[in-house]
Write a structure and sequence with these properties.
This protein is of the alpha/beta class. Strands 3-4-2-5-1-6-7-8 form an eight-stranded mixed β-sheet, with helices on both faces. Helix 1 crosses helix 10 and helix 10 runs parallel beside helix 12. The protein starts with a strand and ends with a helix. The protein binds adenosine-5'-triphosphate and magnesium ion. The site of adenosine-5'-triphosphate has 19 residues, from helix 1, strand 7 and helix 8.
């Protein structure tokens, strides 16, 4: 039975869709069946990122009950996607997402959900459908305050919040330090992705950074996150080796704790 992972942020443009595509690609490289679903029904762009521009059947048709979820799947080279419709004008019920995805959980190891940048019924549909949730933030005050609001909202709902992904980091001293971000939001940072112009270059070619620059820092960090989510032994550091390192990275420690607590019971 596959797990559904929601990628959330109530702030726009922080990198939800970019993370869904690159993480989806990284997960697929572990020989896993991966499905990406565009839960951003009001302003969908997962299909645009992946050059699926005018799909005949979309998530919107599925939620309207006009099509079976399987009919909305487009098969790409490394993973499958269910895009949403750019042109949908009629009423749909996003709260049916969980129900619609349940029959697909048997066919996929991981289903990644993209989401809109606001707390509306579409976001609640994604939250309810998710077995694990990551909040994306950039390391600046406005994004972090929104991430805090998102985290509080999720905690109040008892939603399965797994961690934070800090995106577009320049690693410069004008940014909010990682330990402050983590203390403020009170959720472990599971990955720190650098600001990298190759993300934009890759997207202009409808590729992920893993295809475009497989040996870049962003690809390495995404691979490490994918590995730990799948319980792959090779990637996370062993707890012992963490303490031998002079200064282990916060996200390395958190990934190791996640691995030990999730897969080593
Ligand atoms: N690590 C990164 N380095 C550089 N640019 C990035 C990075 N991640 C994302 N971007 C760029 O930031 C922009 C917004 O990214 P993206 O569309 O993934 O955000 P989003 O959170 O899904 O936005 P929305 O809320 O509008 O759906 C895009 O132009 C993307 O290429
Ligand atoms: Mg998006």
């Amino acid at each position: 039975m596959g797990k559904v992972i929601g990628i959330l942020s109530l702030k726009g443009g922080v990198g939800k869709t970019s993370t869904v595509t690159s993480l989806g690609h990284a997960l697929s490289k572990f020989d896993k069946k991966v499905l990406l679903v565009d839960g951003n029904l009001s302003a969908p762009n997962l299909g645009i990122h992946l050059n699926v521009l005018e799909p005949e059947i979309t998530l919107s048709s599925v939620l309207k009950g006009e099509a079976h979820p399987r009919e909305a799947i487009s098969q790409l080279e490394n993973f499958d996607i269910i895009p949403s419709s750019l042109y949908n004008r009629s009423l749909i019920n996003p709260l049916k997402l969980r129900d619609k995805l349940s029959s697909l959980k048997r066919s996929y190891d991981v289903i990644l959900l993209d989401s809109p940048p606001s707390i509306n019924e579409e976001t609640i549909g994604v939250i309810n459908a998710s077995d694990e949730i990551f909040i994306i933030t950039t390391p600046d005050y406005s994004s972090i305050s929104t991430a805090l609001k998102t985290a509080r909202n999720l905690k109040q709902r008892g939603a399965p919040l797994t961690g934070l992904i800090v995106n577009k980091s320049y690693k410069r001293n004008f940014e909010i330090p990682l330990n402050h971000i983590e203390e403020t939001i009170d959720v472990p940072i599971m990955a720190v992705l650098p600001h990298d112009v190759n993300v934009l270059k890759a997207q202009s070619r409808f590729k992920t950074p893993l295809e475009y620059k497989p040996n870049s820092e962003i690809s390495d960090e995404i691979n490490r996150l994918a590995a730990v989510l799948l319980g792959e032994k090779s990637k996370p550091l062993k707890l012992k080796s963490l303490f031998k390192k002079i200064k282990p990275k916060k996200q390395d420690i958190n990934r190791t704790i996640f691995y030990e607590s999730t897969f080593k019971q």
